[in-house]
Structure formats: C-alpha cells, structure tokens
Amino acid sequence: MKNFLDNVASGNGKYIRIDDIIALQAGWRAFEKTFANLNEPFVISGCVVSGSAPNNAVSAGLVFLNGKVHTLPAVGSIDLSTVKYICYLSNAGSDSRPLFGGGSSNTYETYLAQIANSAPVSGQYLEISQGAAAKTINDILAK
After folding, report:
1. 66, CA 20 to 30 Å: which among 9, 92, 97, 136?
2. pLDDT tens digits for 46-89?
3. Phi-psi region of 7 (alpha: psi -120 to 50; beta: other; left: phi over 0)
4. From residue 18, how far is each of 21, 86, 94, 96, 98 by CA, in Å?
5. Hey, which residues does 78 pair with through a beta bridge?
C-alpha cells in the first residue's frame, strides 16, 4: 500500500496525481471485497456520540453497509435517548461529465449514510444511542 508523504508545503514533496487517487480507490475496493463476506455492518471510523440527550451530537464518519463504504455526515443536534439507526441513503449522489463524441459518462458515485428514527425495511443498518456506541470492526473481528 502506498504511504503518501505530504511534503509539498516544504517544497520537498510531490503533488497528488491521478495515480495516487487510483491507488487509493484500489485500496477501498480491496477493503470492500475483504469485508463483504462478513455480512455485518460496522463503523470504520468516526460516528462518535457526544453530549447528553436531548442535545447529542454524532461526529462524521465512515460506515460499512451492504458491502460498501458510506460517508455519514456529522449531525449537530439529535436526541439519542431512544435508539436511532444509521442506514444508507437510497439516492447515492453521482456526477457526470460530457464526452467528446456526445453523451455523458459518470465520473463518480457517492455512497451516503444517514441517521433515521426507524430501522429500514431492507438493507443493513447500525443501531446508535446515547449509552451504546455503534458496532465497530473490532467488535466483529473479536467474535
């Protein structure tokens, strides 16, 4: 795996190039394939609960749901006195660019997660509340 050294500010490093982005994306794909067989959702990083009900906050983080890495934006004020659910958004964002020969092509897809009041009808989710943190990868690997 590449270890990117950011020494650009001192004049001794290199700028991020497309091959750096491709290597990073390959790393995420390998991560997704490695853990897809677990069939359990978990928090990769972040999603830390702070404050007290009814004024809790949840930090931004990455969660693994349905075999994909999703970004959970920070939530500034939420009441976690009752259990809430981290679930994926069905409308993941995407972006497209025009092609020289006409038409367009998608350039990326964004997988987003949200905190909901009820568990989704289908798909994976994580429970989160004031007294209990969401399941992390360490919880799953410790089984």
Report:
1. 97
2. 888 988 878 889 999 999 888 888 889 999 888 888 899 999 88
3. alpha
4. 5, 32, 19, 18, 19
5. 56
Copy the structure tokens of residue 2: 């590449």
Helix-, strand-, coil-residue percentages of the chain, each rounded to 5: 20, 35, 45
Q: Are 41 and 126 in contact (CB under 8 A)?
A: yes
Three-state SS at 56: strand
Other residues' Cβ atoms within 10 Å of the Cβ of residue 47:
23
- Give residue 20's pLDDT: 77
- Residue 34 φ/ψ, nearest 5 degrees: -65, -45
Q: Residue 9 class from Cβ within 10 Å (0-12 exposed, 13-18 middle, 19+ buried)?
A: exposed
* pTM recorded for the entire structure: 0.70
Q: DSSP state, 112?
A: B
Which pLDDT score, from 0 to 100, does residue 85 have?
A: 93
Q: What is the largest CA-CA distance in the chain?
A: 56
CB 65 within 8 A of CB 100: no
d(CA 41, CA 126): 7
